[in-house]
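#struct-help
A.M.: can someone run this one for me? Single chain, 231 residues.
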Amino acid sequence: MDCGADINAQNNDRLTPLHVARGKEAIEACLRHADYQSFTTADYRGRNFWHLLFLSRNQNKVELAKNIRPIMSTSDAKNSSDDLKRTPLHYACMKRCAWIDVWSWLAEEFIEKFSEEHINKQDEFGRTALHYAAMAGNTKLMELLKTKKAADDTIQDNFEKTADEYEQICDDYNDKVSKLRLLDTSSFVVKNIYSIQYPFAFSSVFLRNLIIWKALEQNYVKLLVTLRRTC
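D.P.: on it. Structure tokens below:
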């Protein structure tokens, strides 16, 4: 690029050097030569730099995003939609990559800079960014969306669920998971209760609790099926 290569040249998938840059030096070079078009140019799925930033598994790219904070405020491309009708904000509120917790500041700042006009934009599944923050269990992003941008928590998706309902589903799921960690022991006891000679007799309370644990296990399986259908 120092020799005159086009920073906005696209390959067969319409990806530019900035879209595909890997490694600190390459990313720094692309950002150094980037112009307004570099952040608006979209790939074949309609995803521009901002979409791909939050989909990236490259921590270097996210770390270097600190250098583009001024552009985050002025770029209209952050409000554009891809082939799934998702804005970059939808992806910012998802938990798709391991680094998202470490670099949560990026999603938080993106919300601050995002246009209120598009804050309730629904994707192909009828979900807003608030829906995805709820599904990710990210209460901080949910609070930011509601308080800073007045995100509408009454909007239902194509499955007739609001963000608050998804939050409740995730809370129930986490509760069941924590209880299931105790089920490994109780399941072993239930399987072997009649085949092992114990030096003591089980009380009726103990046996009742084992039955309750097994019931929770069955409900957990039903919950997983529900989540797979709706998330």
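A.M.: thanks! The radius of gyration is 24 Å.
D.P.: also worth noting: The chain has two domains: 17-161, 165-230.
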